[in-house]
Amino acid sequence: MRIPLSELPPLTGPLRAEALLAWLRTSDSEALEHLWARADELRREGVGDEVHLRGLVEISNRCVRQCAYCGLRASNGGVSRYAMSDEEILECARKIRDFGWGTAVLQSGEDPAFTGERVEALVRGIKAETGLAITLSLGERTEEELRAWKRAGADRYLLRFETSDRALFERIHPPLPGRECDRLALLRLLREIGFEVGSGVMVGIPGQGFESLARDLELFAELELDMIGLGPFIAHPDTPLGATPPPLPPDQVPATVDMAFRVLALARVQRPEANLPATTALATLDRQQGRVLGLKRGANVVMPNVTPLHHRARYNIYPNKASSNETAESTRALIVGQLASIGRTVAVGPGPSQAFRRRTQGAGGGLP
Ligand code: 5AD
What we know:
This protein is an alpha/beta fold. The chain has a single domain (49-362), classed as TIM Barrel (Alpha-Beta Barrel). Helices cover 42% and strands 11% of the residues. Helix 3 (86-99) packs parallel to helix 4 and helix 5 (143-152) runs parallel beside helix 7. The longest helix is centred in the first third of the chain and has 19 residues, at 29-47. The radius of gyration is 19 Å and the shape is globular. Bound molecules: 5'-deoxyadenosine.
């Protein structure tokens, strides 16, 4: 659908679903150039030119869930499972600190070995020794656990809602027996507890239509997200969605890097002061340019992987993941070089989002 720039709604957010839909659907190249430029402008005004580097530690690839899209799903017998020791995790945190970055992101499947108490102790230990900001991304956990982790010093929590289409979500994300799963309610709870809250979606999930994607973008604004992470859906052959994709609806969103850039740029329109990473999934579908183009189309964060090399290749939520055969040092060198090539600099300090600063310190906040 070639809706020309002159007929598209102005990119002053937050936009409603109808306006978002027009921007998601247009194939007009002039309109797209305008969208990239506007996202870049809003990124600069909202969060500045500095790029925050977050050290990502994939602490366990064990998972009790059966998500139809994810290679780490419990019933995938083809995965060699690992869980890092507390000392190994602490060692990664020291490396992040020594690199001069301000944040450690601990991510895993839903692994019962990381009990509430264990994570609490880990958070206290990392905080005490490194002073890093700590982001947790450990799936759907209980209110009690989340509150305890916040008290222990965790700063941020990431939990993507994946899609606002409830029927699609239920098809691809079965709940644990006897438990219901409402990620939107969890996101509101995380915010109430005092976390800086991140969420996001996959773009091009089989069965995902444009209208629900427009609604996803509306939700980014309604939830007042501090962080938004998104990437293209990448089929994993050892998952139900990858092996036997359902018949696609006529309105299917393509799982392309270009469509993901569009959603990223519109996420910046929706939340000018949020932190938005150029994700690994973008870098996976476009090895040469994915990360850099993300940073030029709205993103202001990169999450370099610092998971020890011997574990890394086993964290295959999707195949051919970028950086899966590099050391932390080589990933770091690559990213620092990419930033220099586009005139962006590495931020220092913990780097909370401007959105979070404004809501916790009152209006203003001021860029660093
Ligand atoms: N393709 C793309 N992204 C995926 N994720 C999980 N599986 C896939 C896949 N096959 C994303 C989900 C999850 C995040 C950790 O990784 O959005 O929240």
